[in-house]
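The following block was generated as part of the benchmark described in Methods. Ligand: flavin-adenine dinucleotide.
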Amino acid sequence: MVAWSNNWEKCDGENMEMNEEKKEIFVFVEQTDGVVEQVSLEVLGKAREIANKLGSSVTAIILGEKVQDLARDASKRGADLVLFGESPLLKDYTTEAYSKVVESQIKERDPDALLIGATHNGASLAASLAIKVGAGLMAHVVELEIEEGTGMLLGSVPGFGGSIVSVCKCSKGRPQMATVRPGIFRAIEPSNDVGNGEIAPIQVNLSPLDKKCNVLERNVKRTKELSRAERVVVVGLGSKGDFELPKKLAAEIEADFGVSRPLADRGLYDKEHVVGSTGQSLNANVAIVLGVSGASHFASGIRDVKTVIAINNDPKSQIFKQADYCVNGDMFEILPYLTEELKT
Ligand SMILES: Cc1cc2nc3c(=O)[nH]c(=O)nc-3n(C[C@H](O)[C@H](O)[C@H](O)COP(=O)(O)OP(=O)(O)OC[C@H]3O[C@@H](n4cnc5c(N)ncnc54)[C@H](O)[C@@H]3O)c2cc1C
C-alpha cells in the first residue's frame, strides 16, 4: 500500500490550493444485496487515473451487512485501500446511517476529495454529507479534470436538461465532492497487479436510533443503459423524427436505439436514449449513426465505440471524421438495402 500522511494545509476560498503532500481520494462504493453498482467501479477507475496524475492514493469505502468479499474485489480495481464497515444496521441503504459512518471517516482521515456514483442513493448520500461536513458538491459530473497549477478537481456539470454544461470546482470546504454520472468512465478489470490494495475494517458506531426508516420493499426500474450495449443504432435530426426504418434496422441486428439530443429536446424521443456529453457514452462494438452531424457534444458519446458506421447526405459532415465507415447518401434510401443485407 502507498504510504501517505494526512498533512494538509487547510484553506478556504479562491486561494485554496492542494497541498503538495500526499493526497487521498475517497470513493464511496455502493452495493445493494451484495452487488456493487457498476458506476462505483467506473468512479474507482477514474479516481485511480486522477490519483496517478496527482501522486495521490485512492481509498474506497464500502458499507453493508457483509461486505468483506466485495472490499477484496474493489482492492483489485484501483483502490490502494478499501475500508469496509459491516453492521446489520447497514444491510439496506439509509441516508442517516450511511452518512453517519462515512462522515466519521471523513473527519478521521480528512481526504482531499470524495467521489460517489450518481445513483439515487449516491446522490442522496452526497447531498447529506456535503451539508454535514460543509463541503461543496459538483452534482452528476460528466467529466472530471485536474486544474493546472492548483491540482484541484474541475467537474463538468450538465444543467437545464443538458442544454448547458458548466465547469465547476469546490473552492470552499473539504473534501472536494462530486457525484459521477454512470457510463462515463471506464472501470478497471479486476487484477492482482492493479493497486494491490489492502482492505481494513472500520468501526461502525451506530444504534438503531440512527436508522429512522426501514426498507420494506424495493422496486427498481432499470433504465436503459446504452453504455453497456454491444450494438447501437443512433439517429439524429436527419431522420426528421421518422424512426420507422432505423427501428427496423435496429430490430434486425438486435441493436439498442439512441438519439442525438435535439430529437429528445423536441420531445420526439425519450431523454434516456440521448447519446453524447450530456447523455450516455457508448462502449459498443458497433454503432450505426444515421443523419447525425457529429457535433463535439455528440462525438464524445461515440468516442469509445470500436466501429462507427455513419450515413449522412452531406459529404463534408463532421461525423465522417469520427466514423470508421462513411456512407454518403440519403439514410431513407440506403436503410432498406442495408437492413435487407444484414438480415440473418
Ligand atoms: C452544452 C451542450 C451540450 C450538448 N449535449 C449534447 C449531447 O449530449 N448529445 C447530442 O447529440 N447533442 C448535444 N448537444 C447538441 C449538439 O451540439 C448538436 O447540436 C447536436 O448533436 C446536433 O444533432 P444532430 O446531429 O442530430 O442534428 P444536425 O446538426 O442538424 O445534423 C443533422 C445531420 O443529418 C444530416 N441529414 C439530413 N438529412 C439526412 C438524410 N435524409 N440522410 C442522411 N443524413 C441526413 C445532415 O447533413 C446533418 O449532418 C449539446 C449542445 C450543447 C450546447
